[in-house]
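Table S2 (continued). Query chain:
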Amino acid sequence: MQHPYRLLPGSRGKAKKLAGLAGTYRFVWNVMLAQQKEAYEKAREVVINRPR
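Corresponding output:
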């Protein structure tokens, strides 16, 4: 379930700060997502290459 929000900063300075924060959060999200994908692929390789 998504909850859309609309931020109305009131000034250009606040708008720039909010845009900067959004960019920072997006960067952190993408780094964490890449780490999770890498960990998943490594774990998957271990399971696939496991001797039977």
